[in-house]
Automatic annotation (TrEMBL):
Species the sequence originates in: Companilactobacillus allii
UniProt keyword Nuclease present: yes
Keyword annotations from UniProtKB, A to Z: Endonuclease, Hydrolase, Magnesium, Metal-binding, Nuclease
GO BP term, pick one: DNA replication, removal of RNA primer
Role summary: Endonuclease that specifically degrades the RNA of RNA-DNA hybrids.
Major enzyme class: hydrolase
Protein name as catalogued: Ribonuclease H
CDD domains: RNase_HI_prokaryote_like
Entry's Gene Ontology molecular function annotations: magnesium ion binding; nucleic acid binding; RNA-DNA hybrid ribonuclease activity
Protein family according to the UniProt entry: Belongs to the RNase H family.
Catalytic activity line of the entry: Endonucleolytic cleavage to 5'-phosphomonoester
Domain RNase H type-1, first and last residues per copy: 66-223
Length: 225
């Protein structure tokens, strides 16, 4: 599918026909504003209008991303039969995760796919892989904000579900083992490696350009599977 990449704030604002061209205009540009569209008309409207780069939380409060050294967006998605009421995931259903790390002067991205996985599994994987990349880049000691649209992952961290499971030997209050327990264990080991971290929710498939970018990445991955 042909896409149009609109750069409203960047080195050279305008409309570009590939992500590579768009990326070259926003890498290292503080406060860059960009978004992809399926029609040129929509891209032109974006150049004229306004967008919200700062995500909203459920409490209608939001962090100023300028207060952070690094902004990370993560997302997971799936195209499986389990997304339909009464359906079940099949072994050949496609799923993928993606992350986008904005480190000011540099941008780092990653994505991969898996057959037969759920959306929730991919959401956890996206966060895990983003933290692994941070450690590889030796950026884990910076002031970092993670922005994601998964209440499933956010609640486990911010509402201390993960800590509770760990205290009970990675079991829930009812004695059952959490789904994706092996990933939760891995995430539990990785979280302490990021010294100064904030987690925030954003509405998916809306106006947040960072969230839209990771959604685009994971869908490109599923297209290729």
């Amino acid at each position: 599918m042909q896409k149009y990449y609109a750069v409203r704030r960047g080195k050279n604002p305008g409309i570009y026909r590939s992500w590579a061209e768009c990326k070259s205009q926003v890498d290292g540009f503080t406060g860059a504003r960009y978004k992809s569209f399926t029609t040129e008309a929509e891209a032109k409207e974006f150049l004229k209008g306004k967008d919200s780069y700062t995500p909203k939380t459920k409490t209608n409060k939001s962090s100023d991303i300028k207060d952070f050294d690094i902004v990370i967006y993560t997302d997971g998605g799936s195209r499986n039969h389990g997304n339909v009421k009464g359906g079940h995931v099949k072994s050949n259903d496609r799923a993928a995760w993606a992350y986008h790390i904005n480190a000011g002067s540099k941008v780092f991205e990653g994505t991969d796919g898996e057959f037969g996985a759920t959306n929730n599994r991919m959401e956890i994987m996206a966060l895990i892989e983003s933290i692994k990349r941070l450690n590889e880049l030796k950026l884990n000691n910076r002031k970092i904000i993670f922005i994601l649209d998964s209440q499933y992952v956010l609640n486990a961290i911010t509402k201390n579900w993960l800590n509770g499971w760990k205290r009970r030997g990675f079991k829930k209050a009812d004695g059952k083992v959490p789904i994706n327990v092996e990933l939760w264990k891995e995430l539990d080991k990785l979280l302490p490696t990021v010294s100064d971290k904030t987690f925030e929710w954003t509405k998916g498939h809306a106006t947040n350009v960072g969230n839209n970018r990771v959604d685009e990445l994971l869908n490109e991955t599923m297209d290729k599977m």
